[in-house]
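[step 3/7] fold_predict: job queued, chain A
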Amino acid sequence: MESTPPAPRYFHAILPWPVELSNLSPGTTAAELCTALASYGNITHSFLLVSKMANLGAIVHFSDHRTAAAAAADLDGTCADGFILQARLMSHKEQFTFSCHLSPPPPPRCKFGGG
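[step 4/7] structure written:
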């Protein structure tokens, strides 16, 4: 059964489709992921998720739903460098929520004295 993308709404139609990968081998780079996953389709960007509490993870953004869904389905449960990968297609809502948490803090404000 082939999954179909949700109906485009507003700007969601032009957003990339994120795939979350977890349990990556330590030392994996974003460039290596892009090279390894290029056979699925166009990757718009990727970044690593580094945590002291969990193994290395990544989010890879594909340009269309079909390639992202295929990558997530194929990669989930596969073994790479001795690690069993977990892969899943993220929703745009998750992506937005996640990116809000990654936003840099606002710059410090200067206090001006006056009277």
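[step 5/7] annotate
The helical segments are 30-37, 65-75, 92-102.
The mean pLDDT is 80.
exit 0
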